[in-house]
Amino acid sequence: MKIGNVELENNIFLAPMAGVTDLPYRRMCKKYGCGFTYSEMVSAKGLYYKDKKTDDLMRLCEEEKPAAIQIFGSEPEIMSSVVGQIEKKGAAVIDINMGCPTPKIVNNGDGSALMKNSQLAGKIIRAVKDAATVPVTAKIRMGWDNNNAVEMAKILEENGADAICVHPRTREQFYSGTADWSVIKEVVSAVNIPVIGNGDIFTAYDAQKMIEETGCSAVMVARGAEGNPFIFRQINELFKTGRVQFEPTETDRINAAIELVEALVLEKGENRGIKEARKHISWFIKGMKHSAEVKRKIFTLTKKDDVIEILLGAIQKI
What we know:
Elements: E1 2-3, E2 6-7, E3 12-14, H1 23-31, E4 42-43, H2 44-48, H3 52-56, E5 68-72, H4 76-81, H5 83-88, E6 93-98, H6 103-106, H7 118-131, E7 136-143, H8 149-158, E8 163-170, H9 181-190, E9 195-198, H10 204-214, E10 218-221, H11 230-241, H12 250-268, H13 270-285, H14 291-298, H15 304-316
Helix pairs in contact: 1-12, 7-8, 8-9, 10-11, 12-13, 12-15, 14-15
């Protein structure tokens, strides 16, 4: 599939998730067959004021290219002024977050607060599109407290958006309840650009069902990929052969956790890398017989070798 003039490996995407989809985890998901990745959400204002941490979030690795960098903000002038910085980092696509529901984002008028101001959202897309040499996309929700996804999607398309990702929950719902996939179908019918479906994809069969029910061009996996990069291999298998052949064993899951621990430490240093690895390890080992004990031990450790020793010990108990 294509977004603008960018040819993608497949139509199975990894959602941008703050604190989760950093470079090491994106690289792992690519290894298992993810077709397209996005940076964690980057503040346009942070870039504008040359914040070093913000700049670091945009680092992409060769293995994941072409990849998107996702930015958030609500001031068209500031967002268009940082396009050059984003393109220098190697972004093949610039994605604009109009769906994040967290209070610290929406209280500044950013993220899903833009669902309440579709005209401003359109101006943002137009400003970024005019400044960019790469495709520009947006990720939206169903709405703020009701469904205005179709109206929003049409305005974004009119202002130059090359694709739209739809998460069919309102901001008021956050991540509760069930994603209403019929909203994705409504947007697909209303616009002529690719629509990416997002929400409640926890198995390969969910991805297949979403495409069948909505007609979306691609699926974006979010929470279903936490501790589960294997889902991308499984979706690819289902799409290509009609069945899922690969089921990760507990040993596969622990070995992947060890691989990620090593990558995070290499990327971020031992202290920060181990702290950030803890949540990933919890997801990888969830449901295993000794997971509570392993988790308890790991959350007290600060050295890579000690963490890996505990994980290798868990393999011996399988």
